[in-house]
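pasting for the record
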Amino acid sequence: MDVMNASVAIVGAGDFIGTAIARRFAAEGYRVHGGRRQGEKLAELEAQIAAAGGTFRGHSLDARSEEAIAAFLGAVDADAPLEVCIFNIGANVSFPLLDTTERVFRKVWEMACYAGFLAGREAARRMLVHGRGSIFFTGATASMRGGKGYAAFASAKAGLRAVAQSMARELAPRNIHVAHLVIDAGVDTAWVRERIAAGRGAEVAADLPPDTLMNPASIAETYWQLHRQPRDAWTHELDLRPYGETW
């Protein structure tokens, strides 16, 4: 692969979507950096990407800290000019309304909304110097509508969507592509299959038709395609769901 003098920052480099995004951009020659609370969990991914000829570095990161986000993105930009920042923190929790404490509500907002604002702002500060960049936010069904037990999560994700809209209107004229991706279905993970098994039975979960759940690699491909869009046809919001799903 051609090694590029450009970097990608993933805030929320989890085991599924975040990992897939890291692999996809590293395969294109980008210097990829991933941050998560327990950065040591990224050591195996770092080794795997290196073995494939790519570059990836894992970082321990509390994305709710302004100082930590600034330091993380500063280090990424120092390694190579920051070209892509992807905010991928989920914070998907469910609590009945009367069991949703002030602490839970605030913490979910900090992870899913406030941290996204910090990541987007600090990424923009660096990209504006370079005159270009892409800032992408991972959303969810809850970004569009609230549901039973999701007052905290839906309000945070809806807030993140509004942050992305505001950023896009301000930054697009300055050559920074801001997009919000609504992951509007289950991703193929053990956790999702366990939830299906609990609600619909183990046999159903084990025998789902092909492509009923979204492959993280397919989601990562969408991020890559968004980054490669010509700026006369930028997408701001994109929703993803398997072909078999209905509204």
